[in-house]
Amino acid sequence: MLELRLVQGSLLKKVLESIKDLVNYANFDCSATGFSLQVMDSSHVALVALLLRSEGFDHYRCDRNISMGVNLNIMAKMLKCAGNDDDDIMTLKADDGSDTVTFMFERDQHMIADFEMKLMDIDSQHVGIPEVDYHAVVRMPSSKFARICKDFSSIGDTGIVISVTNEGVRFSTRGDFGTLNLQPEEATIIEMNEPVSLKFALRYMNSFTKATPLSSTVTLSLFSGLPVVVEYKIAEMGYIRFYLAPKIEEVDDEAKP
After folding, report:
1. Residue 199: φ, ψ to 5°
2. Any idea where the Proliferating cell nuclear antigen PCNA C-terminal domain is (predicted)?
C-alpha cells in the first residue's frame, strides 16, 4: 500500500510542469525514504533527478518499494484540471499489485476532485552519478537565471557560456548580430576551486528554468568537461536537479573575454 499526503498539493503540479516538456515518460520510485525520479531526455543529453523525502510529506506510507510508470504530460493535465489553488490538499494512493494510481484533492475539508490514472510498464535504468568536487558552484536568484536564459534566446540559440573566475560569474552568448555578456551582481560564488568556462545548449537551460516556481534560488555546479548540475531546492523536503553535458568543442572561442 502506498499513500502520500501533501497539504500543499500544488507542489507536485509545479514539479510536473517543470519536466513534462523535457521527458514524456518516467518511473516514479517510492520507498520508505522518499518519492523519487531519475530519467534522461529522448536525446540522452539531459538527465532529470527528483527527490521528495518521506519526512517532508504530511503523511507518508509505503509498505514496499514500488515503481510507477506514468505519462508525464497526461499526469500534468490531470493535476492541472484538479484545481490551481495552492491550498489544495493532495492525497496519492496505490494498492499493492494495482495498475492504477489515484489522486484526490480537497479544499476546506471538502473533496473537490479525484481521478484514477492507469500506470505503464516503462523500462529504465538508473545512471550512477559520481560525487565530484566541483571547480565552481554558483548560487543565484532563480528568477534572475531564468531572465538571463530568456534574454539570450532573443539573441540566438547558439548556446550559453558560463564562466567563473575571481571576478565572479559571467554569462555570454553570440548571435548573428553580436555578442552579449552579463555579469549579474546578485550571483554569489559559494566555492571556486579553479576558474571554469563551459558552453551549454540554451534551449535546455530555458527548459530547466521552468522549475523556477519551485525555489527562489538556483545552484549551478560546474566542472570542466562534465555535465553542469542545475539544482532547485524544493522547500525543506528535497530537490530537482538537471544535468546537462557541455558543448566542449565550442567552448574555447565563445569563452574568450
Report:
1. -110, 140
2. 128-247
